[in-house]
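Thread: sanity check for a docking pose with orotidine-5'-monophosphate

Original post by kr_44:
Hi all, I'm comparing my docking run against an independent structure prediction. Below are the sequence and the ligand SMILES. Could someone generate the full complex and paste the structure tokens? I mainly care about where the ligand ends up relative to the chain.
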Amino acid sequence: MSFADRLAAAVQTSGSVTCVGLDPRKAQLPAPIRDQVVGDTPDAWAAAYTQFCTEIIDVVAGRVACVKPQAAFFEQLGPAGMVSLGHVIAHARKAGLLVITDGKRNDIGSTATAYADAYLGDASPWGSDSLTVSPYLGRDSLEPFVEVCDARQAGIFVLVKTSNPGGGLLQDRVTDGKSVYAAVADLVTELNAARIGKSGYGPVGAVVGATYPEQLAEMRAAMPGAWILIPGFGAQGGAADDVKAGFDASGLGAVVNSSRHIIFAHARPEYKDKFGDAKWLDAVSAATDEMNGQLRF
Ligand SMILES: O=C(O)c1cc(=O)[nH]c(=O)n1[C@@H]1O[C@H](COP(=O)(O)O)[C@@H](O)[C@H]1O
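Reply from moderator J.T.:
Ran it for you. Here is the predicted complex with orotidine-5'-monophosphate included:
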């Protein structure tokens, strides 16, 4: 089944549009995980990241649509971290969760093929269902990813309108009456055109931040065949009302990512006293329920 159709099935089966972001950070790991790190070595931290992420996966499996490991936090640990990333991706997929690896990769076409080959589908070393991709190098840098998506039933999420405050410097720039982000959206729509599956969606998704609700509505209309990954919910200030416009009439078409507010929920003021470090997984569970509840429109 195509990635787009699998994502639709994952949303329908789990009854959730939540994507749990797996962004492990040394300083914020809960004490029961941090205490097991003996010696400040990349191997020890990598083992802690694997344990932290796989325990989260076991708690959220079946209750959310997907997970999004952020490669940067694993890369920070060097080779041991990249091995950990592989374990985390494999564990999530075994648990029945779709994996969006967040690498924001891209390069000239022939190198783009290498990135796609590294991350997309069962045949790749990091075996992910999908990958976040930068559009900055243009159409011929995206096409190799789409070809690998076709061959391996995988997907990509192209950065269209990012959640960060400074994204507008380039993305909002208007040329020939059109913003850069709208031009990227047109490219997404073109690349999907001949690839729309049963769910009504194609393999080329888009990233649009929860911090820009008006542009999210505009982008939903501009890319009717694209799944939208909406980051910026929770820790960056995005709320349920801000993401509503990302969904189609049947509640499909978007998944909403939250990383810190779920994985480090034990440290949030509203959960700290109730759960704290000792019951950090209960805090993950409660934060997942809370987000699922907020996103039931
Ligand atoms: O591609 C992304 O996932 C992404 C795009 C974007 O525009 N903004 C954004 O925050 N992200 C990622 O989404 C996650 C947000 O994390 P929290 O702010 O902790 O929920 C991080 O992994 C970011 O790298």
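The first strand starts at residue 18 and ends at 22. Hope that helps with the comparison, let us know if your pose agrees.
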